[in-house]
Give the backbone structure.
Amino acid sequence: MPIPVHPNFTDADLVAIYAYLQRIPAVRNRVPDPRPPAAAAVASN
């Protein structure tokens, strides 16, 4: 959603968006372990 649109939402719009998000199933996925930034990995070698 474009940022300029957000201030134009009515309370009814926000209730509808919230209701929709509550109905869709959660995504189940494993989050990968963090990795160091590429520059740090190169500098340590």
